[in-house]
Amino acid sequence: MDRKDFLKKGILGTGAAIALNAMGTKSDDKSSEYPAQIGANHIPNKETIMKNNMVIHRNETRGHADHGWLNAHHSFSFANYYNPERMNFGVLRVLNDDIVAAGKGFSTHPHDNMEIITIPLSGDLEHKDSMGNGTVIRMNDVQVMSAGTGIYHSEFNHNADKEVKLLQIWVFPKERNVEPRYDQITLPVTNRNVMQQILSPSAKDDGVWIHQDAWFHMGYLDNGFKGEYLLKKTGNGVYAFVIEGSITIEEETLNKRDALGLWDFDKFSFEAGADTQLLLLEVPMKM
User: Fold this and answer.
1) Can you tell me the distance from the alpha carbon of 284 to that of 213, in angstroms, rounded to the nearest whole number?
2) Which fold does the domain 3-284 belong to in CATH?
3) SS3 readout for 122-176
4) Which of 70, 150, 166, 254 gives 112 a disulfide partner, CB atoms 3.0 to 4.6 angstroms apart?
5) Nearest to 96 by CA among 69, 116, 125
6) What is the reported pLDDT for 211?
7) Distance of alpha carbon 1 from its chain centroid, rounded?
8) Tens digit of each residue's pLDDT (9 = 90 or more) over 193-236
9) How far apart, in whole angstroms, are the C-alpha atoms of residue 72 and residue 114?
10) Phi, psi at 221, each rounded to 5°
11) Where are the alpha helices (DSSP H) in the chain?
């Protein structure tokens, strides 16, 4: 699939009647401000493990598409991957794990009313948008766009000789039609075994900020390290994604690219079973 067709599918995709407004793209259909699927939104089957206030998504159960120029894994429905039980986790709508070939990328395309966060894992990603921003983001950078009333942007692999790997995350905002904005930061160097805050609702806090009561933390943990996460806001849930390594959360072991969602809790403990890179996404479970 070429880039133009991919972008069309990313906007519409299979099951477009359900997913269109959920994907942060322009639409003439204003019948619903947000889709009805806000919430944990999981129907148990052989690909989804649910236990009380927990859902487990194994690496191999994610959506996958290899377009040649783009090798993508989708934690939630996106483009040609449509799974009605994986539309979102609370206000977390998209978690895409992308590998973009050398010199390739996403041509200019629109978004509105979505908070879009990009975390490069390796390589260099070139960004241009309708707000006049043009920059390159790299490993240890975090980029955020509040699409609000509407923006256009493009993303390309900046290098002609190596691929770029990244996570792109979409979060529903708590307020629609805000003024579009862009920001990026380079994370300060921290010690290992620290879950570093990389995103919050406040411009005064560490990391980037978005129009939502969400907090993201990322850390590099040594094998055997034990920690605890305290919920920032009552009613939120946490989606834990293992970038590398192995982690045990509430007696459930997760390996590379596995994920676990938790809700109805105040705190949880975790232990690294190997040298691990862990991403914790705390988000509201309801709008």
Assistant:
1) 7
2) Jelly Rolls (2.60.120)
3) ECEEEEEECCCCEEEEECCEEEEEECCCCEEEEEEECCCCCCEEEEEEEECCCCC
4) 150
5) 116
6) 98
7) 23
8) 999 999 999 999 999 999 999 999 999 999 999 999 999 999 99
9) 20
10) -115, 135
11) 3-11, 16-19
